[in-house]
Design a protein that fits this description.
This protein has helices at about 15-35, 40-60, 65-120, 135-160, 160-165, 170-185, 185-195, 200-240, 245-255, 260-275, 285-315, 320-340, 345-360, 385-395, and strands at about 120-125, 125-130. By secondary structure, the protein is an all-alpha fold. It has a domain at about 35-105 and about 150-195. Strands 1-2 form a two-stranded antiparallel ribbon.
Length: about 400
């Protein structure tokens, strides 16, 4: 006589909702408890995402096993980090420190300079402006009081940057280890991601996954290329124009591309301050003319990058209104600090994508008519699938 096992009864809707809420609460509590390592995990994920195309390139073109290609890429990465952490890293730190102290000295002396300017009328062509009616010194003091906490934190950060770098060695090793193991098991991770399934919603899930991949791929890899190109060109141009701290200005301007709208503006203003207050320049220009030239060159460079290079790299993968970008940057900085600020744009694009899908489903509308995941082909430029197709087209990989 064979024994039969009773079938497991299905969960009802209320049970599923309760389990889902408990699971979300546990995940939230875990993230709150381990909030110190969450930024490190995010950095490890970004590093993995950026290095995967190189690993795949070696795997496909050089016919290396995936594990060997991963080991080679991370070995080169460790060597580069060690090299940058020595002479080049110290030079960048020194220039950033000198650059910050120059800007700080300018800001602290700004109220007195504005008071002196307010004693005489300002002539712009045939027009005369009486600045004595506006107490510029008081306005500058109020602005400086608001900036004082930020300046204090930046001063402490830059002053102890070398010490922080040594103390952060353990964190760096943790990030590299996480990125290494994720890269080694990338095929398994990708299979698990693609294997996610919700009965009845398989097609919707696949389209959402593809749209999210385009958003984050275009931002992470595309924005990195834009930042490197901007920083390199800025450093070279500042050196050609005879501006001090050209290396530090290049690094600062490259990083500013990760901060939407406000970043390039602040970097250009700092370059102008350095140009106008340095003693001399090899072009023999007056300080104001030199400052105008520096700001004009940076403005043209940013316009070329924003309107020529950026659309070809990222397409309309993000397609965000500037107001949303600014609000997202402020919220991201307040919620997650520097990481939240840098990842604000793709995070807002992700929330909008999921929000549009949820809104249409709540109203019983078709989420794909018109499609919410429409984007231009340019957004896929740096996806490794594009690399695979290119290699196959040239006969390097058998289809």
């Amino acid at each position: 006589m064979s024994s039969t096992h009773p079938s497991s009864p299905p969960w009802g809707t209320a049970t599923k909702a309760l389990v889902a809420l408990i699971g979300m609460a546990l995940v939230g509590a875990l993230l709150f408890r381990l909030q110190a390592i969450v930024p490190l995990l995010v950095v490890a994920g970004i590093l993995t995402y950026l290095i995967l195309p190189l690993i795949r390139l070696l795997h496909l073109r050089a016919r290396l096993p995936w594990g060997l290609a991963t080991n080679l890429c991370f070995l080169v990465l460790v060597v580069l980090i060690a090299a940058v952490s020595t002479a080049t890293g110290l030079a960048i730190i020194q220039q950033l420190q000198a650059l910050f102290f120059t800007v700080q000295h300018f800001l602290f002396g700004l109220p007195e300079q504005l008071q002196a300017m307010g004693r005489d009328p300002l002539f712009i062509g045939p027009f005369e402006f009486d600045l004595a009616m506006v107490d510029l010194g008081v306005l500058a003091d109020q602005a400086l009081a608001a900036l004082q906490p930020v300046l204090g934190r930046m001063s402490t950060l830059l002053t102890g940057l070398a010490t922080v770098a040594l103390e952060s060695l353990g964190r760096m090793i943790f990030v590299l280890a996480i990125a290494y193991f994720i890269s080694m098991d990338f095929e398994r991770v990708r299979s698990a991601w693609r294997g996610l399934s919700i009965p009845g919603y398989e097609q919707d899930l696949r389209r959402l996954q593809a749209a999210l991949a385009r958003i984050w791929n275009a931002f992470l890899r595309g924005q990195l290329l834009v930042a490197v190109a901007t920083g390199t060109l800025t450093g070279l141009l500042m050196a050609m124009l005879g501006v001090r701290f050209s290396l530090g200005l290049g690094v600062l301007t490259g990083l500013s591309k990760f901060v939407p709208i406000l970043g390039p503006f602040v970097a250009g203003a700092i370059a102008g301050v350095v140009a106008v207050f340095q003693p001399t320049n090899w072009l023999g220009l007056s300080p104001l003319t030199h400052m105008a030239l520096v700001i004009g060159v940076l403005f043209v460079l940013n316009q070329i990058i924003d309107y020529v290079m950026l659309p070809r790299i990222m397409g309309d993968a993000l397609n965000l209104h500037p107001v949303l970008v600014l609000v997202g940057a402020i919220l991201g900085a307040s919620l997650a600090g520097v990481i939240g600020l840098l990842l604000s744009a793709p995070s807002v694009a992700t929330l909008l994508l999921l929000g549009r899908y949820t809104y249409r489903k709540m109203l019983d509308l078709d989420p794909w008519n018109p499609p919410i995941d429409a984007t231009s082909p340019a957004a896929e430029v740096f996806h490794w699938a594009w690399l695979t197709r290119r290699l196959r087209r040239h006969g390097d990989v058998k289809p």
